[in-house]
Write a structure and sequence with these properties.
With 419 residues, the protein is α/β, with parallel strands linked by helices. It folds into two domains: 270 residues, Mur-like, catalytic domain (UDP-N-acetylmuramoyl-L-alanine:D-glutamate ligase), CATH 3.40.1190.10; 137 residues, Mur ligase, C-terminal domain (Protein-Tyrosine Phosphatase, Chain A), CATH 3.90.190. Helices cover 37% and strands 21% of the residues. The strands form three sheets. Strands 4-3-2-5-1-6-7-8 form an eight-stranded mixed beta sheet, sandwiched between helices. Helix 3 crosses helix 9 and helix 10 runs parallel beside helix 11.
């Protein structure tokens, strides 16, 4: 008998034979039985390769300031499954999630569901039960066949497109763009935050007769100013800082999305400069040692990470790095390699992980002489801290479990302070 959340997570993790089973028929049928296809009075779907979590965080902040009730679901989590489902800023409790899983199990009958599909349905069910004004839903993979696309959104947000998950989505930006554009609906509205979007997105928006708000045209966040369109009138505000912890395109998209929904409180917009998200350029100080954590795990994200580190005065770094096997490892290494003083390569504790021995062979020969292999993130981070002696900046990046395990380690260090 499954009673605890951990027992349920073990159960749903082994229930379906395919981790990413990109079909909507099974999960949509269960959603219909649960009555969660419309989980809130207004629904936003957020897709893209990078910046989705940041956009969702900004949307949540703006929803709070607008005084509306809201739910946010994102994936994957860093430390606790509960992170995936938040209602009015609070994580769902173990008991709430267990109750949702029990209801899903009671109606699915012989329909097999994946771990991610269970998670999606649990979020939608809890949002529906909470009678929310707004549901902010992050697409997990792609868009067209992602489980979250079973809902009927009032608004679609698409963030920058880059090469990632090619085995599922295609090996060109146009193919990936087509999959992302699958979240569009006839006569809907698209907030498009990719400054150079694939033509496939624009073509699908035209076919669906969507109204398109494009970054750099209808809205933007640049040069100390944020601008957006509301009721076809352009509005703008000066920003208190040109520096943000989250990608400015994600913040700008959130502002435009809330304006489209009629929920924007303009006075709150400048405060988005201060919004943070754990695992996105998160900084810790540990007895004088500077440590950054970031979930950058594809070349596009790592290019941004390297630029941000350089801008923050980190020209030479030690990295703790581990990755899933389906990533473009060599492009990622090339994006940050010139900044790296030493590589602490670590094994990711998941079946999808690239073996650390193989990760070592992906480094250029000169870098292999400045690298070590470790069996765990904790060991790699301890080695990096000991070897640095406070003189180097340490950067932990790669797949979510790498950052999650680093957070767990730092949480237990008495001298670690989140900056």
């Amino acid at each position: 008998m499954r009673q605890t959340l951990e027992q349920w997570l073990d159960y749903i993790g082994g229930l379906h034979p395919i981790t990413w089973d990109l079909t909507l028929d099974r999960v949509s049928e269960v959603a219909q039985r649960l009555g969660v296809v419309k989980p809130a009075r207004q629904v936003v779907l957020v897709a893209g390769t990078n910046g989705k979590g940041s956009c969702c965080e900004a949307l949540a902040d703006l929803a709070t300031s607008a005084g509306v009730s809201f739910g946010v679901t994102t994936s994957p989590h860093l430390q606790r499954f509960n992170e995936r489902i938040r209602i009015n800023g609070a994580e769902a409790t173990d008991q709430q999630i267990v109750s949702a899983f029990e209801q899903i199990e009671s109606v699915r009958a012989d329909i097999s569901l994946s771990y991610f599909e269970f998670a999606c349905l649990a979020a939608l069910l809890l949002f529906k039960e909470a009678d929310l004004d707004l549901a902010i839903l992050e697409i997990g993979l792609g868009g067209r066949l992602d489980a979250m696309n079973l809902v009927d959104p009032d608004l679609a947000v698409i963030l920058p497109i880059a090469l990632d998950h090619q085995s599922y989505l295609g090996d060109t930006l146009e193919a990936i763009g087509f999959e992302k554009a699958g979240i569009l609906r006839p006569n809907g509205t698209l907030v498009l935050a990719d400054p150079e979007p694939p033509n496939s997105i624009l073509a699908e928006a035209a076919r669906q007769r969507c109204r398109v708000r494009r970054i750099g045209r209808a809205f933007d966040w640049v040069d100390g100013e944020v601008s957006w369109m509301a009721a076809d009138l352009r509005q703008s505000l000066n920003l208190p800082s040109t520096e943000t912890c989250l990608p400015s395109g994600s913040l700008a998209a959130a502002v435009q999305a809330m304006a489209e929904l009629g929920l924007l409180n303009p006075s709150r917009v400048p405060q988005l400069c201060n919004v943070t998200l754990l695992g996105r350029l998160t900084r810790f100080d540990l007895a004088g040692q500077r440590v950054y954590l970031d979930v950058a795990h594809n070349p596009h994200a790592v290019v941004r990470l390297a630029a941000e580190l350089s801008r923050r005065g980190c020209p030479s770094i030690r990295v703790v790095f581990g990755l899933y096997a389906d990533k473009d490892v060599q492009a990622i290494i090339a994006a940050i390699g010139p900044m790296v003083h030493f590589w602490h390569l670590t094994q990711v504790s998941e079946a999808r992980a690239l073996p650390v021995e193989q990760l070592m062979t992906c480094l250029p020969a000169p870098d292999q002489a400045r690298a070590e292999m470790t069996g765990s993130v904790q060991q790699a981070l301890e080695n990096a801290i000991r070897s640095s002696g406070g003189s180097d900046t340490i950067v932990v990046f790669g797949s979510f479990p790498v950052v999650g395990e680093a957070l767990e380690y730092l949480d237990h260090q008495s001298g670690a302070r989140l900056q």
